[in-house]
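Backbone-to-sequence.
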């Protein structure tokens, strides 16, 4: 993406943020350029954020971005390919001390003592470019373009949320799609939830997973196998 195309893209993003869009846009730039920040106070000190500290809260409280239009705008940046590769992942956000935070859920977190933490979970679907060329075709990158990033509520599951997100993305996608997933989605629930979606899925499966197939024809000896 050249500088002119990037400038146009940023202007279009800015228009889709609706309320408090100036403060939100600068806060987004601060987040992307301040890797070590641990609080809003630190982000408000970023040179990219030219406003006072209270504007960080204004951006979060008042901004209501148009998510579907933002998703469609991002999808327009995807080039024509044989397959578009999407990645879906469930990310836990532990908030054990935030007792007033609404709708907290139990989240699997490997760093905790029992593997479970109280907080919120988020589901993300992103486009994964196969190559990132910087003068050399061998140059790889972990860069990805998020299309939807949403909280998993207490009445949803990671699988139901991810299947819904994939369905929304496919509505605006005319190319073949390959979805990459980790072992949380390598089960019958995911297969059934996405059976009617026009997408190929490649997922890991757990080491203790039992896979069942159609039994061979009866040989005439012993008890016939059950299907």
């Amino acid at each position: 993406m050249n500088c002119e195309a990037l400038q146009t893209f940023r202007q279009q993003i800015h228009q889709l943020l609706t309320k408090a869009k100036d403060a939100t846009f600068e806060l987004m730039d601060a987040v992307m350029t301040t890797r070590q920040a641990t609080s809003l106070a630190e982000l408000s000190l970023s040179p990219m954020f030219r406003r006072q500290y209270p504007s960080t809260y204004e951006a979060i409280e008042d901004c209501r971005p148009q998510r579907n239009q933002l998703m469609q705008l991002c999808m327009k940046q995807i080039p024509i390919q044989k397959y578009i590769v999407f990645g879906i992942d469930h990310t836990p956000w532990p908030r054990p001390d935030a007792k007033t935070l609404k709708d907290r859920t139990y989240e699997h977190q490997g760093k905790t003592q029992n593997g479970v933490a109280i907080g919120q979970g988020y589901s993300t679907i992103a486009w994964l470019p196969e190559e990132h060329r910087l003068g050399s075709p061998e140059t790889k990158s972990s860069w990805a373009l998020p299309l939807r990033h949403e909280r998993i509520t207490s009445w949803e599951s990671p699988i139901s949320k991810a299947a819904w997100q994939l369905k929304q993305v496919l509505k605006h996608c005319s190319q073949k799609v390959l979805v990459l997933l980790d072992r949380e989605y390598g089960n019958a629930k995911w297969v059934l939830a996405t059976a009617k979606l026009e997408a190929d899925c490649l997922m890991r499966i757990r080491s203790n997973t039992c896979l069942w197939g159609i039994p061979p024809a009866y040989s005439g000896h012993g008890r016939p196998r059950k299907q």
